[in-house]
Write a structure and sequence with these properties.
With 371 residues, this protein is mainly α. It is 76% helix and 0% strand. The two termini are 40 Å apart.
Amino acid sequence: MIEFIEIGLLLAIYLLIFYILGAALAVKLRWTMRRSQCLLIGFFAYFFVFQICAEAMILTQQPLHALKNLWLLVLSLMLIAGCSIIYADRERGGRPKEYIPNPAKGFFVLMILAILCQIATGLLLQRNLGWDFAYYMGNLTTSVSTDTMYVYDGSSGNLLQQLDLRYALSGFYMNTAVLSQLTGINAMMLQRYLMGVLDFILADLILYHFAMKVFLFDKKKSYLLVTVSILLMVCWDVYDTSAQFLFLRNYEAKSYCANVVLPMVVYLIYCIWKDDHRKDIWQQLFVVCSASVAVSMSSILLVPAAVAILMAAHILALLIEDRNKPVKTTTANVRRILLILRNSFLCVLANGVYLVVYFLYTKGILVLEVM
């Protein structure tokens, strides 16, 4: 029971960290957004920086405690800087706030109850205990007990001959291993309950913001959409959907890819569809795409594919719109399309680098022997 209370406190601390990082980014880059949006961007910013630290330690085969010490230092510096930026901004009067009246508080309470029901259902009825579960949890617990990272096989526990870059290119699970070593809480419990609940919260936040954008900031409709979506997920048990990844495998990186990373990418591209001149949305998409592999290796191809397909649809719409205008603006549209292509390329550049490294690994060209 004490461990569950500690995990609840860690969840609150995590959400606070994400908010501070997101809010500080919003201040420095002059983004106008709500607190919950700061939390979402802060989550990706957290893993963006953690990935840099983790991969430096993993690929040079440093012990887990070295990553823990490095990350504590880096995170502390980021939080101090973030709090200073937020405080200085408030002293100056703060950025323009995106105020939206809330006449539907009853529907908000209904949505919160639905989210709590969703979390309880996902955790209490968790029944996916297959090979993936054993391997990922084996990687976690072995890393903590041996003070290593990806040098032992997650299922057998045998020492590997070379680093398996299929897993070692993402620092997602090592984040939990660091937290386990730091707090003394079992890594499997942290992954299943802390990261599992966080998955629900982030997925519902993205759905809410998507609804707000589609319904033109009508909070009542947005609350209802989230509530109905949760009820549909709870009542219809269909395995091959992202919803069932959320319920059955909420602690896995694959679930984060299906329910957090890809929906966030689609949401931001939808915002770009509405106004592709907004620099802040492109910047946010860059952060999300660059951190996507850090959250899930499944993002290495899925995120660039999603960006390419959705941007192609946007460009096609621009060409059709230009063709139907009485006076064509071909030159202006060409410049606009080139700008969209350039920005899209920059957003998925990190994924491309990971893809090249992984391709070289699969061909046996890039091999990192375990020392």
